[in-house]
């Protein structure tokens, strides 16, 4: 079966189960699931029930596709995403984005938990991603037959939608939410970075670092799908004062940042 057929099979399965004409897709990062509390949920399907879908293996990624209404718009939400460090291919990681586009989404919103490299950024704050550096050593477009799904040589001069980003900045200003803007570096993981690696990332222009988002954003651009992404800054990456990693603290910081992230996404969705 061709890759396109796999996508069509998954989308057809979801349409039969009531995932009808969603306008907006949302990908939730680590510890960022409470937007569902504001959503009128109509349908839920576990990933392992969807034909050809990968299955989430990280314990704090739930692994469900959720459909319903948020701020008057039909949305489809990925509760749990896939990572390169789990052993998935770049095609697996981005498969859901292609399925959501086939279902009908017109905009994609992405969240993630990231480490703050910029010394002016603090734990518990948010960063609007303005640009990224792909350090995952691969591309979700590097496969035979990609030209049947879109332009092979995708322009990435402005990977994050300028209109949506400007709206998010305006909402943040109006709501008195601290929203930094910067460059996100995406690494493989799952180990966190060494002191030397943090110095390198700062040197090449990264303001934050994480292990996700970039593959999905590349594919969104491949599909001409406007995308915006926000990082919840969960840990400080100062190589001169580096503390041992504490996953519980990282999740706690994601929870601290989450209410403002939800406010930004809800207000943006209202105006889309």
TrEMBL record:
It comes from the Bacteria. GO terms for molecular function: purine-nucleoside phosphorylase activity. Pathway: Purine metabolism; purine nucleoside salvage. It holds the Pfam family PNP_UDP_1. GO terms for biological process: nucleoside metabolic process. Keywords: Glycosyltransferase, Transferase. Residues 23-270 form the Nucleoside phosphorylase domain. Its EC number is 2.4.2.1. GO terms for cellular component: cytoplasm. The purine nucleoside phosphorylases catalyze the phosphorolytic breakdown of the N-glycosidic bond in the beta-(deoxy)ribonucleoside molecules, with the formation of the corresponding free purine bases and pentose-1-phosphate. Belongs to the PNP/MTAP phosphorylase family. This is Purine nucleoside phosphorylase. It comes from Aequorivita ciconiae.
């Amino acid at each position: 079966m061709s890759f396109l057929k796999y996508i069509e099979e998954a989308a057809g399965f979801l349409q039969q189960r009531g995932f009808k004409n969603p306008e907006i897709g949302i990908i939730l990062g680590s510890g960022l699931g409470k937007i569902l509390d504001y959503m009128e949920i109509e349908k839920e399907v576990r990933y392992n029930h969807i034909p050809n879908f990968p299955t989430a293996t990280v314990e704090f990624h739930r692994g469900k596709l959720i459909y319903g209404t948020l701020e008057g718009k039909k949305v489809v939400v990925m509760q749990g995403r896939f990572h390169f460090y789990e052993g998935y291919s770049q095609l697996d990681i981005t498969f859901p984005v292609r399925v959501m586009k086939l279902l009908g989404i017109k905009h994609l919103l992405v969240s993630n938990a990231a480490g703050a490299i910029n010394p002016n950024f603090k734990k518990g704050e948010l960063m609007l991603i303005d640009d990224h550096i792909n350090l995952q050593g691969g591309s979700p477009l590097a496969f035979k037959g990609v030209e049947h799904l879109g332009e092979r040589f995708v322009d990435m001069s402005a990977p994050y939608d300028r209109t949506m980003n400007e709206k998010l900045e305006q909402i943040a200003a109006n709501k008195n939410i601290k929203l930094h803007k910067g460059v996100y570096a995406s690494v493989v993981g799952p180990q966190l970075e060494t002191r030397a690696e943090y110095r390198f990332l700062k040197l090449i222009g990264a303001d934050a670092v994480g292990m996700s988002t970039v593959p999905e954003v590349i594919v969104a651009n491949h599909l001409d799908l406007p995308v915006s992404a926000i990082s919840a800054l969960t840990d400080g990456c100062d190589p001169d004062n580096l503390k041992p990693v504490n996953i519980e603290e990282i999740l706690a910081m994601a929870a601290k940042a989450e209410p403002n992230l939800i406010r930004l996404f809800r207000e943006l969705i209202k105006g889309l």
